Amino acid sequence: MDVSRRITGLTGGGSDGWEVFNKAREMIAGGIPVTELTIGEHDIRTAAPILKDMHRAALSGHTGYASVPGTDALRDTIAARVEERTGVPTQRENVMITPGGQAALFAAHIAVCDPGDTALYIDPYYATYPGTLRGAGALPVAISATADDAFQPRADNIAAHADKATSLLINSPNNPSGVVYSEKTLRGIAEVCVTHDLWLISDEVYDTQVWEGAHFSPRALPQMADRTLVVGSMSKSHAMTGSRCGWIIGPEEAISHLINLATHTTYGVPGFIQDASRFALEQGEAFEAEIADPFRRRRALAQELLAAQNTVGLVPAQGAMYLMLDIRATGMTGEAFAYDLLDKEHIAVMPGESFGRSAAGHIRVAMTVADDSFAQAITTLLRHAEVRAHGQHAAQ
Ligand code: PMP
């Protein structure tokens, strides 16, 4: 029996660099130690006090169906947090809780795109984006942000595709590039959205991981609150990836339709997870800084090591748990370099090509192992690149 094109179309087909990741997993399963700098997951687990609160909530009976849009308490906490951080008036009615940011991305596109509508997104992109957009029935169209522009998207490139489009998906701080979109970039994007009547889906799941300056949400720009759906999540900010708790913030009417969608799909998020998420959010910014701190430290370590050589380039690393390294001086593709590094040095990184065309000749390094192993891996990676670029003698 055939399954639908909608579901077979979720994955792109063809080689996309994920084989490197799969090979690393096979090597590990086969007993070969590999330093894994691939997936965006913390090397710490969810903090014990959060788990204790989850346990308390479950024992107190919050194990039945929870309210579909999310508990009043969690929606209020998130609304207050967003209002405080962005200045945009935000109430419970502007917030719907979802089972993680990924489900929020899918729901947001279902909410704004009719089947066949063009949904724009920026290349390089988080790997699920094109499939998510296709799965929601939209036609995904990638807009390139180039290494020459330090991976900041250009408003005129977006505008060139905007007439036929319904929505634009952006992500800052960005996975995979580690770039934070400047206020100028975001103002340019907002102007295109207003002029061309686009919905903006703003994926802000890394909003607590900003190494320079502060996070800026485009929902706060003039005329944007009515046309922006912000995707948020507990995964990265609170090391709660497995709890599957995220949200969508948007205009009340869109949220009311999204609640209908949740009634017909997820039927909400477990109450004990929501209670624990609220508890986690109440720990405030100091706790969020503590969760982000290992990445801040490792970024500094890498910057120091990279400054001492000139073969591998570092794309401005302003946020999120990744570094994007330019390895074009080796003459290799990101994919070939990643395979080679895995084979010879047992270090697994993601080829830039896994995240679209714009990051070709780059690799993405997740800063997700302990500081000493991380520094060692970067040192080895840089030496490896040096040998590939200039031969063995150059690396002595
Ligand atoms: N957006 C981006 C850019 C991500 O990197 C991720 C996870 N890696 C997500 C969304 C989804 O995260 P979650 O579903 O765990 O909230």
Task: Give a topology summary.
Layout: H1 5-8, H2 18-29, E1 35-37, H3 48-59, H4 72-86, E2 95-98, H5 101-112, E3 118-123, H6 129-135, E4 139-144, H7 155-162, E5 165-171, H8 183-195, E6 199-203, E7 228-233, H9 234-237, E8 246-249, H10 252-263, H11 271-282, H12 284-307, E9 313-314, E10 322-326, H13 334-345, E11 347-351, E12 362-366, H14 371-390
Parallel strand pairs: 1-11, 3-4, 3-5, 5-6, 6-7
Antiparallel strand pairs: 2-8, 7-8, 9-10, 10-12, 11-12
Bound molecules: 4'-deoxy-4'-aminopyridoxal-5'-phosphate.
Question: Can you describe this structure?
Answer:
This protein has 396 residues and is of the alpha/beta class. Helix content is 42%, strand content 15%. The chain has 14 helices and twelve strands. The chain has helices spanning 5-8, 18-29, 48-59, 72-86, 101-112, 129-135, 155-162, 183-195, 234-237, 252-263, 271-282, 284-307, 334-345, 371-390; strands spanning 35-37, 95-98, 118-123, 139-144, 165-171, 199-203, 228-233, 246-249, 313-314, 322-326, 347-351, 362-366. The strands form two sheets. A seven-stranded mixed β-sheet has the order 2-8-7-6-5-3-4, sandwiched between helices. A five-stranded mixed β-sheet has the order 1-11-12-10-9, with helices on both faces. Helix 5 crosses helix 10 (252-263) and helix 12 runs parallel beside helix 14 (371-390). The chain is globular, with a radius of gyration of 21 Å. The relative contact order is 0.17. The mean pLDDT is 96. Bound molecules: 4'-deoxy-4'-aminopyridoxal-5'-phosphate. Residues 40, 100-102, 126, 171, 175, 203, 205, 233, 235, 241, 246 line the site of 4'-deoxy-4'-aminopyridoxal-5'-phosphate. 4'-deoxy-4'-aminopyridoxal-5'-phosphate (PMP) is lined by residues 40, 100-102, 126, 171, 175, 203, 205, 233, 235, 241, 246.
